[in-house]
Amino acid sequence: MRSMTGYSKLNYEDENYVINMEIKSVNNKNLATKIKLPYNLNLLESFIRAEIASQISRGSIDFRIEFENKNESLKNLKYDENLAKSCMDILNKMEQDFDDKFSNKLDFLVRNFGVISQKDLETDEEKYKEIIDLKLKELLHNFIKTKVEEGNRLRVFFKEQLNILKSKLEQVKELRPQVVENYKQRLLNNINSIKADINFNEEDILKEVLLFSDRVDITEEISRLESHFKQLEHEFEIDEISQGKKIEFIFQEVFREFNTMGVKSNMYEISKLVVESKNELEKMREQIMNIEWFNHLLASHKCFKSSKMLLQHLWISQQVS
Question: What letter does residue 8 receive in the DSSP assignment?
Answer without folding.
Answer: E
